[in-house]
Amino acid sequence: MAAASSGLNRFYYILGAVAVAGAGALIFMANRKPVSIPANVTVQVSDTSGFHGYYLGSDSAPLTVTEYADYECPACQQWYAVQFPTIEERLIQTGRVRWRYRDFPLDAPHPHTRVVAHAAACADEQGKFWPMNHRLYEWEPRWPEMRDASDTFRGYAKELGLDVAKYDACMASARYAGRIEASKSEGIQVGVESTPTFLINGRLYAGGGKVYYDMLKAMLDSLQANPAK
Q1: How many CB atoms lie within 10 A of CB 19?
Q2: Which end of the chain has the smaller Cβ count within 10 Å, N or C?
Q3: Cα–Cα distances in Å, from 130 out to 190, 193, 195, 228?
Q4: For 167-225, how does the pLDDT look when each residue is reduced to its tens digit (9 = 90+)?
Q5: Phi, psi for residue 196 in degrees, rounded to 5
Q6: What end-to-end distance do the CA atoms of the chain give, in Å?
Q7: What is the CATH T-level fold of the domain 40-225, as seen in this structure?
Q8: Is 133 within 8 Å of 122 (Cβ atoms)?
Q9: Where are the domains of the chain?
Q10: What is the edge-to-edge ordering of all strands in the sheet holding 97-103?
């Protein structure tokens, strides 16, 4: 009888501990404010000082491609899945192309666009922009269909090894809202109207179908065959 009583006490102890832990998690979730990143903010000098985009590849590459994109844009996601892996492997990693990523949030159709761009900026703060960029464009799970995807982005941050407390503080601060707005303003100034749009040698290429490995390789071959005088 004593043994049974001891086992029962242990059961209730564990049950109580689980209940306390669950209550703590609920309180934490309730106290954590929803992430909101403002649009149409006034851009400060500090928002752009020393920052001109997210770069990938050698700074001595003969060709730089600027991509203006929205993480929530289906065409951007499709282009990333189909074209970018080959471009990254064969042109960026080999030092032939330097990639420059710029946010171009499309606010009206995409409710998560500012939050997800800010999540990538907070990952950059810890040196993980490109891993986060790649993870976001996988759309797994399909976060664009969620009512609130901020917890999914936080899960990515944890998955990628970020300091989650620092990530949370960064997201709550909304400190990169001006940077995101400045990025969009730059795109508007050069003529971007949709995503994805690519700026290559002063020319805009709208639509992911126009920029692919063979096209960039041919452009590189042409540049090397006709070096600037």
Answers
A1: 10
A2: C
A3: 24, 24, 19, 32
A4: 999 999 999 999 999 999 999 999 999 999 999 999 999 998 899 999 999 999 998 87
A5: -80, 145
A6: 96
A7: Glutaredoxin (3.40.30)
A8: no
A9: 1-31, 40-225
A10: 54-56, 97-103, 63-69, 197-200, 203-206
